[in-house]
Write a structure and sequence with these properties.
DNA-binding; homodimer; 0% strand; mainly alpha
DNA sequence: ACCAAAGTATACAGATCAGTGTACTTTGAA
DNA sequence: TTCAAAGTACACTGATCTGTATACTTTGGT
């Protein structure tokens, strides 16, 4: 009816799949449910994705883009000072944790379910984490850290810990704890510069 | 045949289940396989555990004991100096990560699969993490930290990050990165004392 | 030697799973 | 207006899943 095409079925399917996979897990989410929730027949789903594993990979790739742009948006405009910008990564994480549809890191959950059975799924997850580390390394360089590799390794690990802590122990303010630890490490690193 | 009773079927089932759940995930591991690998009939399995969810909970409780005693053993005798003992937590983590049957934190994997569908499973996971934090807090107190709660919150979060990093990015030496960050935080905390 | 508890063997129920076959309908652009 | 691509509707396959029924056998303590 409308000349402007509605969001393609493909996008709709990925969006629905991401929601269900994140909330209920991968094996626990059936193809039939994803199709029904997307308002699409199973036949159409299989026209776009040859198998469930392919849909999982496409969904994780979409999450990769979505999550990295989320962090970019919530940190780039946050502050002019490069040190504050680096630390605002953990404020962005705090926003993320407080969202209704936060169920931990879906990449980690995917690894837990598919590590031994599907290499391409594992690869997408590792790649996201690698790009994430690279981005933080860039922020460390901008902040003038003398050893940006070392600092970003530590801050990335702290970010991972914050995500998991927010998932498993939601009564803790994981983002705040992480930011406090990160602040100490950053200030010590910059003092040496 | 032997008068010394072989390890009970119950223990055998839990041991097998832990191995398979950790390696392949929970939903991906069927009851039939667990029974067969345990050398036990499915009927016997259901005599010990009323349902798969009950077996999952029992398995996680067993892992709770196993994992905490593992860390106790690898840190208590490690060093007399309480500060070094605190930091040796990350050496113990390094040993764990290098084991063949390390597939990340099975508690975190369980949360990812069951968070929205089974409260008791979620509870066992949260409880393990809480006890783990309490134990680290005790080590912080022994080391003379002026604010052991704050320091242990940060170190626990770093430990979580190390576990996840070791799982997702095995090419990194997550334990070493974590220990370096932890050392900086501990020394700064003790300097204030 | 007896007997109850525990385990075996095996078939089965009922649900759900991923994925397919077939015939029909809508859509949008040339 | 025509026509091919995309989607629908729906039944269906074969595998696998959790959990159960039934009848038999082993085991260990008294």
């Amino acid at each position: 009816m409308p000349q402007t095409p509605s969001p393609s079925k493909r996008e709709q399917l990925i969006h629905t799949a991401l929601t269900l996979f994140s909330r209920y897990g991968f094996h626990a989410t059936g193809i039939d449910l994803i199709a029904k929730e997307s308002g699409v027949t199973k036949r159409t789903l299989y026209a776009h994705f040859g198998s469930k594993d392919e849909l999982v990979v496409a969904t994780l790739r979409h999450l990769d883009e979505q999550l990295r742009s989320y962090f970019l948006k919530h940190t780039n405009g946050a502050c002019e000072d490069p040190k504050q910008r680096l630390l605002s990564v953990f404020d962005a994480a705090g926003f993320w944790f407080s969202e209704d549809n936060f169920f931990g890191c879906t990449f980690i959950n995917a690894i837990g379910e598919y590590a031994e059975s599907n290499d391409s799924i594992r690869q997408v997850c590792s790649e996201y984490k690698r790009l994430s580390r690279e981005w933080i390394k860039g922020l460390c360089e901008q902040a003038g850290a003398p050893n940006p590799q070392q600092l970003s390794d530590e801050l990335s690990l702290i970010l991972e810990g914050a995500i998991v802590t927010a998932q498993v122990s939601p009564q803790l303010d994981a983002a705040a704890i992480a930011k406090r630890a990160a602040t100490a490490l950053v200030e010590q690193a910059l003092k040496d510069a």
